[in-house]
Amino acid sequence: MTIAEVSKEYNLTPDTLRYYERIGLISNVPRTKNGIRDYDEGTCKRIEFIKCMRSVGVEIEILIEYITLLEKGKSTVKKRKQLLEGQRKKLLEKQKSINETVDRLNYKIELYEEYSTPHAFNCSSNRGLISSSFEKKCMVSLFVKTYLSLAYLFVKHSLKAISLFPSKYPCAVSK
User: Fold this and answer.
1) What pTM, to 2 d.p., does this model score?
2) 38 touches 2 (CB < 8 A)
3) Which of 33, 118, 130, 142 is the most buried (most CB within 10 A)?
4) Crossing angle (nearest 10°) for helices 14-22 and 41-55
């Protein structure tokens, strides 16, 4: 495959591919008799591996160290495994952090959904985790709106009951 084809296939710029070659991540790229790069299957698999590792934040320096060890052969298997295990540990920590952030975002979204539902004020759903003054203002505002709505309904229905059954409420009816 030409550099343009590999670039398109792996969504990397030709400059990035040349850079990876220059720093040793991709080595011994076959060339045609005219000197044009002709990426073979093995080189493409390496590019795929590099792209995968870079997409999750593995540093270039770590990849260079790994590829250098890989090219030295079987005598470096233990060191390569340790290197990959270290990167896995970092990724798992990152994944845990991302999961915690997603949980927090879900909680915040749930709060805003509760705030936007009429008469949905529920102290137990707060769970004591209001962290900002904005959220406190939202809770107070929601409480006041709910209280006033309930008070209005109570008065409205009380007046209706009084007007419908004046004999039951003699003190409330003026003569």
Assistant:
1) 0.59
2) yes
3) 142
4) 100
